[in-house]
Amino acid sequence: KEQSRMVGTVALDAAVPIDKAFETATRLSSSGFEDPVKGGTLNTALALMQSSNQIDGDAASFIKGSGQFMTAFGMKKDQTNLADLGIRMQGLFKTTDVQAADLPEFAKAAPVLSGAGLSLEESLSTLTALRETMNAGEAATGARNVVSMMQTSGANAGARDALGSVGLKTEQVDIEGEGLKKALETLKEATSKLGDADRAEVLTKIF
Q: How far lies 180's CA from each of 8, 162, 206, in Å?
């Protein structure tokens, strides 16, 4: 009863339907978030869902996606880290094509990006750049593919030749040694003087 009363109070304070508050609290608990009601996570989740127009959407997907992102980057599932992730997403929501509803799809790429050495901020930046020209699912798939291809470029003769044509060695775009962000910057700089057609041809051979 005490828990129900507290959820009711949170729902009232957040001006959301009580059934949505209960659903969100349940989803947070099942996703491994610490004491969502007493710890303030429920308040934060509802506020983020409201501010990103997701309060009438799928709470399960939003919370699961948040949890997957936090797990991939070793973040404790608590109010502070949920707020941090939410604020970052809100910033993207206001300034780019990224939507809060993209988070569940983005989360599918999070383990790969984290494993490639990218920080949370770098991963969101990579996904956002891809999201500008495709939907969220395609962006997540694209990010995973870029990581995979750059990890194996040294074993691909065509990729080695293409890199050599712009003065690069495979180790210079090895994301395990250089990190994805630096590897992409190196590749961008090396191909910057090429015409559009030549650049496209080189990148196609690499990726």
A: 46, 18, 15
